[in-house]
Amino acid sequence: MNIKRLGIVCLLGLNALGASAQKWFSLEVEKQVNEILSRMTVEEKLSYLKGADWMSTKGFPNLGISPMKMSDGPQGLGTHGKSTAYPATVALAATWNEELAYEYGEALGRDCNARGVNILLGPAVNIYRAPFCGRNFEYMGEDPYLAGQTAANYIKGVQDKGVVATVKHFVGNNSDYDRHNISNDIDERTLFEIYFPAFKAAVQEAEVGAVMTSYNLLNGLYTTEHPWLIRKILRDCWGFNGLVMSDWGSLHYTVPGVKAGLDLEMPGGKFNIKDLAYYLKSGDISMEMIDEKVRHILRVLIGFGLKDDKVVDSNLPLDDPKSAATALKVAQESIVLLKNEENVLPINPQKIRNIVVVGKNAHGYVHGGGSGNVTPFHYISAFDGIKETAEEYGVEVKYMDELDFQPKLIYTNDTQGEQGLRAEYFSNKDLKGTPVTVQNEKKINYSWGDGTGIAGMPKEHFSVRWSGIVSTSESGEYEFTVAGDDGYRFYINNELLIDEWHEGGLRSSKIVRKLQAGEKLDIRFEYFQAGGGAQATFTWRRIGEHKDLFVESLNKADMVIACFGHTSESEREGTDRTFTLPEVDAQLMARLKACKVPVIGVVNAGGNIEMQGWEPSLCAMLWTWYAGQEAGRAIGEILFGKVNPSGKLPMTFEKKWEDNPAYLNYHDSDGDMHVAYTEGIFIGYRGYDRLKREVQYPFGFGLSYTTFKLSNMTLGEIREDGSVDVRCRLVNTGKRAGAQVVQVYVGKTSSQIERPEKELRNYKKVFLQPGESAAVTFTLPREAFTYYSTTAHDFVVEPGEYRIILGFSSKDIQSQIKVSYQ
Q1: Mean pLDDT, the chain, as a whole number?
Q2: Is 89 domain-assigned?
């Protein structure tokens, strides 16, 4: 589908799609915009189209125009020092709670007000297409309706505090492995049904103030330079009156960007005064185009009351207890209980008296990486949260590090007097000069989220060399594993055996070496960090039959809780992650298969991880996403039953990558930099239904410590506007208070065109006490029965019979009614 064709499509669809003016936009606002615009010089107008610095627009005191201060988002303010770190927005989607999404936005708005931030760079609403995408944790799942409703309520909360929200990344940023060069080629129907709806909801339902374009190309054009996307769809079709900005450094060419309708380049480069003035003089662009952009920026400035300098609200604390409470509430409602064999959870303190916690993610603040990162004032780690709650019940909890049980093999020098390695830390990436410090370290398993903590060391752009001696008293084959983010290399006797000395995401390498008893070999592991997160790991083990002292020690406990998964080093902006576990976690889970006591998994990730090799050995599993600064407390409360889990998956968990509908067309395979979305609208549960493939865990799935029953489904009369009410009764039939999400799907029984078996069209989270029941009513608008016709270039209803389905997941259907709809 070419761009010319897309332009015709949009022109034909304008009237049918309609338009919506934002409530912050008015005739009075426009009057003030025109007055300021009339007093601006050409140079002032041109200079207004790029950032004044990394995170603000330009101010003009002579015109009464203040700079607008921005901050990274979307799960907290990541730019101006420490702030409340909320659960990632994929976790917010997992709450399936619209009211909580609004509260989340409100809390973000307060945090902005406390810092004088005017524009929040969030939410991100790109659709989860495959588990690899490095920014999936910032997105809101695979379903456009769920993402749209979550985002709309988030935006309303932010903007009700007088802060401009920015919906991003418009559009098609569904992978991060080569985001600056890939053209995501998406057909018309798929755009309108899958990838546009969340953005449209942000504009027309939430009246968002700003839209940010993406890095990638769409159907051969960069989104920053895409007139069909910005002018025809966003402005003409959806009626957007606000500000369109670039993602940082995503504008490639000046004239195409001007003509396409981009208003503000952040932080600046192509929209500079010199180049813009040249193209004005040459006639490539016009003053009317420049005025239009300035007008859009001024509309937001004035419409949100930001014309006069919006000072910090000194009545609001930076470390706000109300914000922390919201972060905790979202964490509690977002965690998904995926497995619970024989009701091993909640933990029964009468039977479980001592617990061992293992895994690298038990300690520290575990989060996704990139611009979505937030540095909290304080956090509660998984281990601390579990221990804190366990103490209330008199249960003993301790941490056990598997690295403490590695074979005695590595020594700082050939005297073999001290185990470990000699560590030299350098304040540059090249291991040059005099080390900042030299120390001996018994184990190398670092995840530095905010620098090494060593005095004199920079937080970024540093390097480390570990050196020592390998010597064993037992001949045999030994496996050495090293991992790093960014560059690393590994030597034995000065022979370079592993060479990954380049920037990149977290990855690991291993070698096997046969060692003879008594021989001594020099060993060296080198690492450099080039910005962002940092992780360096070096482990070793003997291959073959031997006593596993680590597992033997675990078997003395009553229960093992394993905290594992991805982190900011392996899941982050700018790169994709693996579908498998990081190597250190894979090794841990392989060893835990030998445990004779129950093993509970507490997993971090922004989406699915291939789990066929380790999930069967777990008795229970919590999927905790990246649950923010209060993660540990929420985890502890859920494990011990103080909180009943109510999170539901916002995406499908496939059994293996080959099952995914995008399997054959996720990566650019032929080198032409084009990725064709050949699965079309059949992504996520729509695709698995179509392919009749069994999944690991379905969309909308999540267990509870109580049980629910749905009954009395009825359908009201279809109104003149095409809407219809669906009613049912939900009962908590268990012994604990809890919440269930009733999900409403609509599907055409037979169709002249290919349509999904069912599509989510509404949902509601209902909290009930034991034995309590509630009448639940949903309204399905006419749009719930439509599909996008590439003939009519509009959403249309196909007359005939439809199924209205109520379920607790996309696979757990509780009740359904057929209805004739014209």
Answers
A1: 95
A2: no
Query: In this structure, what token pair is assigned to residue 297?
Result: 């920026």
Q: Which of 491, 359, 469 is nearest to 420 (CA)?
A: 469
In a domain, 716, yes or no: yes
Does residue 238 lie in a domain region?
A: no
Residues 643-694 pLDDT 10s:
999 999 999 999 999 999 999 999 987 788 999 999 999 999 999 999 999 9
> Tokens at residue 319, please?
């470390």
pLDDT surpassing 70 at residue 20: no
pLDDT digits (tens, 9 = 90+) for 102-119: 999 999 999 999 999 999
503-556, pLDDT tens digit by residue?
988 889 999 999 999 999 999 999 999 987 788 999 999 998 678 999 999 999
pLDDT at residue number 336: 99
Q: Which residues contact 19 (CB under 8 A, 6 or more apart)?
A: 236, 237, 238, 239
Residue 720 within a domain: yes
Q: How confident is the model at residue 761 (pLDDT cuts 50, 70, 90)?
A: very high
Residues 6+ apart with CB under 8 A from 363: 381, 382, 383, 399
Q: Is 625 helix (H, G, I), strand (E, B) or coil?
A: coil
Find out whether 206 and 802 touch, Cβ atoms under 8 Å.
Answer: no
DSSP 347: -
Choose the catalytic residue: 72, 111, 143, 247.
247
Show the beta-strand stretches assigned E in 143-268: 164-170, 183-185, 210-213, 217-218, 221-222, 243-245
Q: How far apart are CA 501 and CA 820, in angstroms?
A: 64
Look at 17-26, 146-155, 408-417, 749-758 and tell me which has the smallest mean pLDDT. Answer: 17-26
Average of per-residue pLDDT across 733-745: 98
pLDDT tens digits, 544-559 = 867 899 999 999 999 9
Q: What sign does the CA torsion over 694, 649, 383, 72 have? A: positive
Burial class (CB within 10 angstroms; exposed 0-12, middle 13-18, buried 19+) of 350: exposed
Beta-bridge partners for 217: 183, 222
Q: What are phi and psi of 223, to 5 degrees?
A: -65, -25
Q: Is the N-terminal amide bond of 650 cis, ω within 30° of 0? A: no
Handedness of CA 154, 160, 161, 167 (dihedral sign): positive
CA distance 651 to 589: 24
- Rounded distance between C-alpha atoms, residue 136 and residue 334, angstroms: 15
Residues 6 or more apart in contact with residue 171 via CB below 8 angstroms: 126, 191, 195, 196, 199, 214, 218, 223, 229
- Specify the CATH number for the domain of residue 791: 2.60.40.10
In the residue annotation, 247 being an active-site residue is answered as yes
List alpha helices for 261-286, DSSP H. 273-282
For residue 709, the cross-strand partners are 731
Cβ pair 509, 498 in contact under 8 A: yes
Tell me how long the chain is.
Answer: 822
Print the domain residue range for 812: 708-821
> How many whole angstroms separate alpha carbon 84 and alpha carbon 138?
16
β-pairing verdict for 674-676 and 183-185:
parallel
pLDDT digits (tens, 9 = 90+) for 466-483: 999 999 999 999 999 999
Q: How many domains does the chain have?
A: 1
Q: What is the pLDDT of residues 58-72, one digit of tens each?
A: 999 999 999 999 999
Residue 21, pLDDT above cutoff 80 = no
Asked if residue 439 lies in contact with residue 489, where contact means CB atoms within 8 angstroms, the answer is no
CA-based radius of gyration for the chain = 28
DSSP string covering 537-562: EEEEEE-SS---HHHHHHTTSSEEEE
Q: What is the pLDDT of residues 269-325, one digit of tens each?
A: 999 999 999 999 999 999 999 999 999 999 999 999 999 877 799 899 999 999 999
For residues 570 and 610, is the Cβ–Cβ distance under 8 A? no
